[in-house]
Amino acid sequence: MSFEVADGEFCILLGPSGCGKTTLLRAVAGLEQPSGGGIAIGDQRVDSLPPRERDVAFVFQSYALYPHLNVAENLGFSLKLRGAPQEEIRRRVADAAQLLEIHDLLARKPQELSGGQRQRVAVGRAIVRQPRIFLFDEPLSNLDAALRAGMRVELARLHQRLRATIVYVTHDQAEAMTLGEKIIVLDKGKIQQIGTPAEIYHRPVNTFVATFVGGPQMNLIEGTVDGRGVFTGDGCRIDLASLLAKEHAGKPLTVGIRPEDLRPAAWNDCSIESEVEIVEDLGADKFVHLRRGRLALIARMPPHLSLNRGDTVRLTSEARKLHLFYEGRRVS
Fold first, then answer.
1. d(CA 19, CA 25)
2. What pLDDT shows up at residue 196?
3. H/E segment holding residue 30
4. How far, in Å, are 3, 192, 226 from residue 12 at the CA level?
5. Rg (Cα) of the chain, in Å, rounded?
6. Could you check whether the bond before residue 197 is cis, i.e. omega within 30 degrees of 0?
7. What are the tens digits of pLDDT across the range 270-284?
8. Cα–Cα distance between 35 and 24 in angstroms, integer?
């Protein structure tokens, strides 16, 4: 794989467990030795340098705080190891604590802190280093859902203030979409797509990216296209004449539709006919699970729409919102 991270950019490495995200991050940090290729920070090749000489700060999933040291001592520990003057250590610790709003916790030990406070200390320990690159390895995965959402916002604000270069590993696509300026989607050790959050979401290059990014995930419908450009498959009939070249006639095709892009259709429209299986009422939205034979769909519907289990409905989508894939790769 090959990619670049610009100076001051917030770059996300996104992918499922086991795809190589953390291994890649550890290789950048010098904690793993790559079998080939090279790693450069700025204009300097660093793949032969030990971790301490790469000028990077690593924030681990487990926080990795020293339990016998208080917050102030944890924050300043790396500076102390490097022989920084005491006055400089105090100044940098105070600045980081003020930035992260943990200045009133400096005398506490890690066991006296909440999960969110420990995470702030771990981030603060990286900030005091003032490294060229911050490396984050799923730093929010140990937090509960509400605290994780709050910390996402805090990390975004922190990046705006520092304009630091950040490489951030996560399997959570909500974190990636919220935080990332650039997202690199990985699967099985290979880069699937590089782009902005909008590009990754609205123009996925293959069916893996299409279904991995987005919640609920994109619906995929298998079928074929006739000579008039009409797609049929599993009870669906969709006119794709305006989107497809004639060369696709008679070939297998996969149509992708985001749940929010499905809407009720008139009975004479080109549409998808299916039966309501489960309705998830979330207050502001309804996630409606539908089935027809082997085809399972999820539609995001407005809360006022009344649907019950067993109802038969027809759904459609605007042609411009459809995603078309041939042999797993995007064609339109």
1. 12
2. 98
3. none
4. 12, 13, 41
5. 25
6. no
7. 678 899 999 999 888
8. 12
Sorted by sequence, the CB contacts under 8 Å of residue 1 that are 6+ apart come out as: 24, 186, 189, 190, 191
Cβ burial, residue 99 (10 Å; 0-12/13-18/19+): middle
Q: Percent of the chain, pLDDT > 70?
A: 98
Which residues pair with residue 315 across a beta bridge?
A: 264, 272
List CB contacts of 262: < 8 A, sequence separation 6 or more. Answer: 219, 272, 297, 299, 300, 315, 316, 317
The answer to whether 292 and 274 have CB atoms below 8 angstroms apart is: yes
Which pLDDT does position 267 carry in this prediction?
56
What's this model's pTM, rounded to 2 decimal places?
0.91
Tokens describing residue 124: 């603060």
Q: Which residues contact 37 (CB under 8 A, 6 or more apart)?
A: 2, 47
SS3 39: coil
The SS3 of residue 54 is: coil
**Which of the four pLDDT bands, split at 50, 70 and 90, describes residue 110?**
very high
Nearest to 41 by CA among 56, 26, 23: 56
Q: Is the dihedral of CA 279, 211, 201, 136 positive or negative?
A: positive
- Which residues, 6+ apart, have CB-to-CB distance to 218 below 8 Å? 204, 210, 211, 256, 257, 258, 259, 323
At 167, is the pLDDT very low, low, confident or very high (cuts 50, 70, 90)? very high
Q: What is the pLDDT of residue 294?
A: 86
Low-confidence winner among 207-211, 271-275, 324-328 (lowest mean pLDDT): 271-275
Q: Which two tokens stand for residue 85?
A: 């003057």
Measured in Å, how far apart are the chain's first and last C-alpha atoms? 26
131: CB partners within 8 A, 6+ apart: 55, 56, 57
What mean pLDDT, rounded, does the chain reach?
Answer: 92
Report the distance separating Cα 324 and Cα 305, nearest Å.
28
